[in-house]
Design goal:
Blueprint (H helix, E strand, L loop, with lengths): L1 E8 L3 H13 L5 E5 L15 E2 L9 H11 L6 H20 L25 E2 L5 H13 L5 E5 L1 E7 L19 E6 L4 E12 L20 H8 L4 E2 L4 E8 L13 H5 L3 E3 L19 H15 L4 E4 L5 H7 L1 H9 L9 E10 L2 E3 L11 E3 L4 E2 L12 H19 L25 H17 L3 E2 L1 H24 L4 H22 L8 E2 L15
Helix pairs in contact: 1-4, 1-10, 2-3, 3-10, 5-13, 11-12, 11-13, 12-13
Length: 534
């Protein structure tokens, strides 16, 4: 049994930003953050583009950034949350710069602000094409000098601990559900350990591995959202899955798919068919710089019309030295598979990139469960609505990490003490799995059915077929779970089946096309219906 004042599930930008702020302000508190693998591995580290913030008031403004975000969100953003994030964002960026983050500058030492799809001005701060890696490096450097913050590596959170584990019956309408910590699998010892805390923050990242093609790392299996659902907490907007339009098409296949950052289009890259014809003007007047949902659907449609496996991003007209300075890793990756971006068009295809739905929070990161906060991609704060504006995610993570810190700092001393009556994890009656092939095959089947039936374009028939097959996978996996000693692979499969169910069920309920959710049965928008009442 491990005890702490604050338990953070996740070690990306959301989790570590909060943990560092709390640890610095309250050196008397013990704070523990869990990392599913090594602390350098997170969704954050894979972010290429950058951080959107109003940085040049001479040409940009809060009003412009707010408007761009609302337009991208297609009518479903919480406007108050959008204003909060946009107005507070620049200060959060200044803080991480003070902590040591390096963003690219021009020769005059002013920041080199990029532009991406959906943005009306250049406002993206970036570090080459590995901004996320740079922010993760910065945060981990701070952790090294913070003695009351401990990052436990190779700990896989299994379940949130609530009254359910004390023998009480809990439903989705049960009032006063409380969180006491989490059970976690110590991957080094194979033991399930009990981690108790006065308050817990979920910052477990995305769930891109629910699809066959994704830019997310292999650890992105929706663990936090799935745990929250099992704990009977509020989940929202799971139908809005953002597919990045331009993942590198590699005929050999790779997981995760390599991302060709949207910043490349902001830099002047043009989307074309394999034969070299531009096509985005047919779909949007903004062309290759339209928001991601529009571009992804356009590429998907062109691929189906032409029977092609990919479309192309043409960068051959761009200045080579400038391209290399901005996108050195993209250039090297393309060369590694025989493509010279200065001579060849880059083959691209959409891939699952970001979850706009997740754990419902208020403007302070509070969830529907007492003493439980959430931040980052696993949440639904209301910022993104039906479609996330490019480079708003790292911004959201920092803003909400700070707001959770402000809220918790005021009241942590008044929280109840750690509940020490929590039983240890009960693994009685389970045995080691005899055939791991069952888990491997179920995972493959899950990814295939989600990609075929609940992808960029959906229909009632496809969603029904996905739902029927998901139920069979769910029953088989629960049977395995109840009799088998837990492994990371089994837990990830179980979590991804939950995520797949939530996406499919939410998509079935929304009988309109809006933002990232497009269905051939309801191609037009309808007046917004608040699904929380259903």
């Amino acid at each position: 049994m491990i005890e702490s004042d604050v338990l953070v599930l996740g070690s990306g930008i959301a989790g570590l930003t909060f943990a560092l702020k709390m640890a610095h302000a309250r050196p008397d508190l013990k704070i523990i953050a869990l990392s599913k693998t090594a602390d350098t591995e997170s969704n954050t580290a894979y972010a290429q583009g950058g951080v959107a913030a109003v940085w040049n008031p001479e040409v940009d403004s809060y009003e412009k950034h707010i408007k761009d975000t609302l337009i991208a969100g297609d009518g479903l953003c919480n406007e108050e949350v959008v204003k909060i994030v946009v107005h507070e964002g620049p200060e959060r960026v200044r803080e991480i710069i003070e902590w040591g983050a390096r963003f690219d500058k021009k020769e005059n030492q002013k920041y080199d602000l990029g532009r991406e799809g959906g943005h009306s001005e250049n406002r993206i701060l970036h570090y080459k094409d590995i901004t996320g890696w740079e922010l993760q490096r910065t945060l981990l450097a701070q952790v090294e000098h913070t003695p009351n913050l401990e990052v436990l590596e190779h700990y896989f959170a299994i379940d949130l601990i609530t009254q359910h584990h004390l023998g009480h019956t809990i439903t989705r309408v049960t009032p006063g559900i409380e969180c006491y910590g989490a059970y976690a699998l110590n991957k080094k010892t194979g033991e399930i350990e009990t981690l108790l805390a006065r308050t817990t923050v979920v910052a477990t990242g995305g769930a891109g591995q629910v699809y066959r093609n994704t830019t997310n790392p292999v650890i992105a299996t929706g663990d936090g959202t799935a745990m929250m659902y099992r704990a009977k907490g509020r989940i929202e907007n799971m139908e809005f899955v953002q597919f990045h339009p331009t993942a590198l098409y590699n005929p050999q296949g790779e997981n995760p798919s390599f991302l060709i950052s949207e910043a490349v289009r902001g830099f002047g890259g043009i989307l074309k068919t394999p034969s070299g014809e531009e096509f985005m003007q047919k779909y949007d007047e903004r062309g290759s710089l339209a928001p991601r949902d529009i571009v992804a659907r356009a590429i998907d449609r062109e691929m189906k019309i032409l029977g092609a496996e990919y479309m192309c991003l043409d960068c051959r007209h761009l200045d080579k030295d400038a391209f290399l300075a901005h996108f050195p890793n993209i250039y090297e990756k393309c060369l590694s598979i025989g493509i010279d971006p200065m001579k060849d068009m880059i083959p691209v295809t959409p891939a699952c990139h970001y979850m706009c739905g997740g754990i419902r929070t208020d403007e302070w990161g509070r969830t529907s469960i007492k003493n439980l906060y959430a931040a980052g991609e696993c949440t639904c704060t209301g910022l993104h609505g039906a479609n996330r504006l490019a480079s708003n995610s790292l911004l959201e993570a920092m803003v909400f990490a700070h707001r959770i810190f402000l809220d918790l700092e005021k009241k942590i001393d008044s929280l109840p003490p750690i509940n020490k009556n929590i039983p240890d994890w009960n693994a009685q009656g389970t045995t080691e799995p005899e055939e791991l092939v069952l888990i491997v095959q179920s995972m493959k089947e899950l990814k295939d059915l989600m990609s075929y039936y609940v992808g960029i374009v959906r229909s009632n028939v496809r969603l029904k077929r996905a739902s029927d097959r998901l139920y069979l996978l769910y029953r088989e996996t629960e049977e395995l779970y109840s009799h088998t000693t837990l492994s990371p692979q089994l837990c990830e499969l179980r979590n991804l089946i939950t995520i797949a169910y939530l996406i499919t069920r939410s998509a079935s309920i929304r009988r309109e096309s809006r933002g990232l959710h497009y269905t051939t049965d309801y191609p037009n928008k309808l007046p917004f219906i608040d699904k929380s009442i259903l």
